[in-house]
Amino acid sequence: MVERWEPVQISEIDKKYGRAEYAKIIDDEHGLRIELVFENDSRVRFLFETSVLAYNVCDEGRRLKTLNFFIEQYGLGMFGKYPVYIVENSGYIKWFNEECYDAFSKYTISHYVFVTSTDIIDILTTYAPQVSVIH
């Protein structure tokens, strides 16, 4: 099956912030925090309070196959329009389940993708993050 990227609709972000320039990533005893910094210097924090199952951070220039897939499926105009997606039929979830011999198969795993001008961040989790606008 082909992956399907669905934009996460976050009205405060979609309407006034524009493209996410970069992400600040903090992984500590408080959980995983992704702080998106937008072109107007506004910031939005996504907090995954307890540990996530897996995450991957990669420079977007090293994800050429992913970028090509995205542009072929959704068009160049869609790239960068939304900073956060949920991936259905995720290859990353499939890989994760194979790696851990389906130890988490009884859970519903979500694959979030954060897209900035400089990075693509994949997160596998069993719950949605808390979202807060910093400024």
Could you describe the 3D structure shown?
The chain has 135 residues and is of the alpha+beta class. The protein has one domain (4-133). The chain is 19% helix and 41% strand. It has 3 helices and 9 strands, in the order E-H-E-E-E-E-H-E-H-E-E-E. The protein has helices at residues 11-16, 64-74, 91-99, and strands at residues 4-7, 20-28, 31-38, 43-48, 54-59, 84-88, 110-115, 119-125, 130-133. The termini are far apart. The model has no long low-confidence stretch (mean pLDDT 87).
Which helices and strands, and how do they pair?
Blueprint: E1 4-7, H1 11-16, E2 20-28, E3 31-38, E4 43-48, E5 54-59, H2 64-74, E6 84-88, H3 91-99, E7 110-115, E8 119-125, E9 130-133
Antiparallel strand pairs: 1-6, 2-3, 3-4, 4-9, 5-8, 6-7, 7-8
Mean pLDDT: 87
Share of residues in helices: 10-25%
Q: What is the radius of gyration computed over CA atoms, rounded to a whole number of angstroms? A: 15 Å
Give a quick account of the main beta sheet: strands, pairing sense, barrel closure: 5 strands, antiparallel
Task: Compute the separation of the termini in Å.
Answer: 40 Å
SSE topology string: EHEEEEHEHEEE
Shape annotation:
globular
Number of discrete helical segments? 3
Strand numbers in spatial order across the main sheet: 1-6-7-8-5
| Total beta strands | 9
Class computed from helices, strands and strand pairing = alpha+beta
